[in-house]
Amino acid sequence: MAPVRVRFEDAEHGVRLMFAGDESGAPTLVFLPCAGGSASSFRPLIGRLPASWRAVAIDPPGHGFNRGVLYDRIEDMARIYGEVLAPRLVGRRYYLVGHSLGGIVGFLLARQLEQRGPRPEGLFVLAARGPRQVVDEHWSLLDDDSLIRKMDAIGGIPEVFRDALEDFKAYLPPVRADFRALERFVLHDPMPLSTRMWVVATNADRFVATSRAREWIEYGLDASFHVLEGGHFFVQYEVEPLVALLESAIE
C-alpha cells in the first residue's frame, strides 16, 4: 500500500496539525496521540481508513519534529487543542480518537465541546486507564536507562531505535512531560459524557489492563466496550481490527 499523503499546518499555541484525505471528505476523525507520541504515530492507521474520510492529527508542541514548549497538564492540553480545533470543525461531522494519554485528553475535550461546540459525533478512547487513577508509577522521575527499559517492556521503542537506544534518549523529554501530566491528573468532575463513546482495550496490552480500560464505561451515558487483538501500540502495528471497528461504528 502506498504511503499516506499528508500535509502539515502550524496552528495556535505551538500546535501543528497533520491533515490527510480530501478536504471536503466526511466524516472527519481527529486523532490525539499517546504519551511522547506525535501526529505521525497515526500514519499507519490513517493509511487504512476509507478514502472518503478526512483525518486531522494533533502534533503537540515539543513532540516529533514539532518544536515548542512542552505541556505537562492534561487540562491545558484539552483546553489548547479545543481552541485550535473548534474553528476548524464548524459545520463538520467529526469524531475524536484518543490513544492512551490522548484518550484522557479526548474525554476532557469532548466534555468541553459538548458545552461550547461544535459538538462531536463520538469519542473513541483507545488503550487508556480509567480516570480515577491513570498511572501506577511515576515514570517521569526515572533516569533515562530505567525509563527506556519501562518503555521497551510495553513495546514503546520504535524498531529503528532497537540497536541505538542511546540515540532514543533525545526523544525522552516529551515522554517525561506527558507522564508528569498523567501523574498529576485528577478528574474533579465525574459527570459522564452524553456524546457517544467507544472504549477500546487490547488483549495483549502490557501497560493498560482490560479491567482498567473498562472503567471508562462509567463515564459515558452511551458507551460500549470492545477488546481487540494487539498490544498497547496497536494503532501503529495492528491497525486492521481498529479500522473495522471504526467503519462499523461510524458508517
Give a written overview of the molecule.
The protein is α/β, with parallel strands linked by helices and 251 residues long. The protein has a single domain, classed as Alpha/Beta hydrolase fold, catalytic domain (Rossmann fold, 3-Layer(aba) Sandwich), CATH 3.40.50.1820. The chain has nine helices and eight strands. It has helices at 43-46, 74-89, 101-116, 144-153, 165-168, 172-184, 210-214, 234-237, 240-250; strands at residues 6-10, 16-20, 28-32, 54-59, 94-99, 122-126, 196-202, 223-228. An eight-stranded mixed sheet has the order 1-2-4-3-5-6-7-8. The longest helix has 16 residues, at 74-89. The chain starts with 5 loop residues before the first strand and ends with a helix.
Counting DSSP H or I runs of 4 or more residues, the number of helices is: 9
Structural class: alpha/beta
Work out the radius of gyration: 17 Å
Poorly predicted regions: none
**What is the CATH level 1 assignment?**
Alpha Beta
Count of extended strands: 8
Order of helices and strands: EEEHEHEHEHHHEHEHH
- CATH homologous superfamily identity: Alpha/Beta hydrolase fold, catalytic domain
Average pLDDT reading: 93
| CATH architectural type | 3-Layer(aba) Sandwich
**β-strand amount:** 15-25%
How many separate domains?
1
Largest sheet: 8 strands, mixed
Provide the helix percentage. Answer: 25-40%
Strand order of the largest sheet: 1-2-4-3-5-6-7-8
Q: What best-fitting shape do the alpha-carbon axes yield?
A: globular
- The N- to C-terminal Cα distance equals 23 Å
